[in-house]
């Protein structure tokens, strides 16, 4: 005989109503929610989603919009979202917008009709477009901040500052920065970190032209970086950094003997040679945190709460992971 909600409630020592709220994102204490979900998992409880939707008026699903699932950064965020949503017995409908702001707006409009809430990861649309299409009560932004919309971001500015200060502590005084797509929110946060790290004039950071945040973008930027004569390079992300490593090796430039390289995100940092020093961003934790925030917002909206039930702008810390691609500068061979 299939396990029922009453079985779960009895085993967890709560009422059926409390068990239902714990399993559907309703208002219960975190300890009660975790205990009920653990019992439900142990007993193999699977609610009838269609029946639950008829009773609660909920779709019983979340939507996730990402710009590019082939980018390991966004794939990791999606993993975090999916794992936390699965714990709440909620499927996630995922849409990849191929970096197109127009497709993003269309996806939001479409998913709103069949989900209880939306997560927008690093959206490319303008602030105005997002405010126009997104419902503040049932939308959370990931790695993007727009006044008026709930969000979960990582402290990218501080991560970039840590990277520059690491290179400075090693003795580097001229660093090339390889930026990603212009006008992105994440890029602006990195710029803030660069400004903070260079404010006292103890280190110079020069920018090369922006590239696509991909392996090919790193290969493309490498010759300009090597021509500059700087002893270190800070890449927009790990994909760009691995592209730089590959091209540098082809040019006979040794990393880190001739050039120190720092990535960002800690996604593919151990897949190249040498392993990358990089800024670690908690992608999966960000995804899970965003789901938790979204479920609280949705529950508050359904309860007609006048004010959000919690802080709606969350910032997660970043930290530098030092590996084998950075070292003290030496006299570098001119390519």
Textual characterization of the structure:
It is a single chain. This protein has about 325 residues and is α/β, with parallel strands linked by helices. The protein has three domains: about 5-45, 434 Repressor (Amino-terminal Domain), CATH 1.10.260; about 60-155 and about 285-315, Response regulator (Rossmann fold, 3-Layer(aba) Sandwich), CATH 3.40.50.2300; about 155-280, 3-Layer(aba) Sandwich (Rossmann fold), CATH 3.40.50. It contains twelve helices and twelve strands. It has helices spanning about 5-10, 15-25, 30-45, 50-55, 70-85, 100-110, 125-135, 155-170, 185-195, 215-230, 240-250, 285-300; strands at about 60-65, 90-95, 115-120, 140, 150-155, 175-180, 205, 230-235, 260-265, 275-280, 315, 320. It has a six-stranded parallel sheet, sandwiched between helices. A six-stranded mixed sheet has the order 7-6-8-9-10-12, with helices on both faces. Strand 8, helix 11 (about 240-250) and strand 9 (about 260-265) form a beta-alpha-beta unit. The radius of gyration is 23 Å and the shape is elongated. It starts with a helix and ends in a 14-residue tail after the last strand.
User: What integer is the average pLDDT?
Assistant: 91
* The level-1 CATH class of the largest domain: Alpha Beta
Total domain units: 3
Number of strands: 12
Count of DSSP H/I helices: 12
Helix % is 40-55%
Low-confidence stretches: 53-57
| Order of strands across the main sheet | 2-1-3-4-5-11
What is the CATH architecture annotation of the largest domain?
3-Layer(aba) Sandwich
Question: Which series of helices and strands comes N to C?
Answer: HHHHEHEHEHEEHEHEHEHEEHEE
CATH topology descriptor of the largest domain:
Rossmann fold
Rg value: 23 Å
Oligomeric category: single chain
Shape: elongated
The CATH H-level superfamily of the largest domain is Response regulator
Determine the structural class based on helices, strands and strand pairing: alpha/beta
Major sheet attributes: 6 strands, parallel
N-end to C-end Cα span: 73 Å
């Amino acid at each position: 005989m299939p396990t029922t909600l009453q079985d779960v409630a009895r085993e967890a020592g709560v009422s059926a109503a409390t068990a239902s709220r714990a399993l559907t994102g309703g208002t219960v204490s975190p300890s009660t929610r975790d205990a009920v979900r653990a019992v439900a998992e142990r007993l193999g409880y699977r609610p009838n989603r269609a029946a639950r939707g008829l009773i609660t008026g909920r779709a019983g699903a979340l939507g996730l919009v990402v710009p590019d699932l082939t980018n390991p950064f966004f794939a990791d965020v999606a993993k975090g979202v999916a794992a936390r949503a699965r714990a709440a017995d909620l499927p996630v409908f995922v849409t990849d917008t191929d970096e197109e702001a127009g497709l993003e707006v269309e996806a939001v409009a479409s998913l709103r009709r069949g989900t209880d809430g939306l997560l927008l990861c690093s959206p490319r649309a303008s602030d105005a477009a997002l405010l126009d299409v997104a419902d503040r009560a049932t939308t959370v932004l990931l790695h993007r901040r727009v006044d008026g919309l709930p969000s979960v971001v990582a402290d990218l500015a501080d991560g970039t500052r840590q990277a520059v200060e690491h290179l400075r502590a090693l003795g580097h005084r001229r660093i090339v920065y390889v930026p990603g797509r212009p006008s992105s929110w994440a890029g602006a946060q990195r710029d803030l970190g660069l400004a903070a790290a260079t404010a006292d004039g103890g280190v110079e950071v020069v920018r090369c032209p922006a590239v696509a945040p991909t392996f090919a973008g790193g290969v493309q930027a490498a010759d300009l970086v090597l021509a500059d004569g700087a002893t270190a390079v800070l890449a927009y992300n790990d994909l760009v950094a691995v592209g730089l490593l590959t091209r540098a090796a082809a040019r006979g430039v040794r990393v880190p003997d001739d050039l120190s390289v720092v990535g960002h995100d800690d996604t593919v940092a151990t897949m190249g040679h040498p392993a990358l020093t990089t800024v670690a961003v908690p992608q999966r934790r960000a995804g899970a945190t965003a789901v938790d925030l979204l479920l609280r917002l949705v529950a508050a909206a359904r309860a007609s709460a006048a004010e959000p039930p919690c802080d709606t702008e969350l910032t997660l810390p970043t930290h530098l992971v030092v590996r084998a691609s950075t070292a003290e500068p030496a006299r570098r061979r001119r390519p």
